[in-house]
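Q: Convert this sequence to structure tokens.
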Amino acid sequence: MTTGFARHRRSGRVIATFTGFEADLLRSLAGQLVELLRNEAAVPDEHADPLEAMFDFTGPTEEPEDPVLLRLFPTAYPDDGEAASEFRRFTEGSLRDGKANAAASVIDALEEAGLPDELAEDGLVVDVELEPTEALTWMKSFTDVRLALATRLGVEDGDEEYWHRLPDDDPRAQAHDIYEWVGYLQETLVAALQD
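A:
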């Protein structure tokens, strides 16, 4: 059903129509991203500098063990462990919050557009209208969702033939279809914002 995003000529808003299933799937993907990003709490360092404590630079200093988190927060200085650790400590917490808040805004917009807590109605249609700034937030969240899916699935450049050969009932093929669908939504969102 989704025709992707388009710019409304009069209002300038970006609009899309989703089936209830599609809207619920987007909510689920965004919710899983929020859960992943907020799952690891930073542990404060009791020996931290008091000035640093005022600014709460207590982010993690080690690379995340989860490959998705490592993909979302790559090591800034691969050849300098100390600089990489400090960079991560000062930036990762706010980056996580930003990504989690972006994903949460997708959920909020879908629910404000009429997506119920429990999807029980066949034929439900959810019309989403976004201001350009909200659309940019969705675009960033789509990037994060696609990176997460690609990492979990092991998607690589040039492996399209592998994915197209999988049987339709293979769960990996179905997850890859979702990955491609989110990519399609992202492409139409970019085009709508440029329109």
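Residues 41-45 have pLDDT under 50 and may be disordered.
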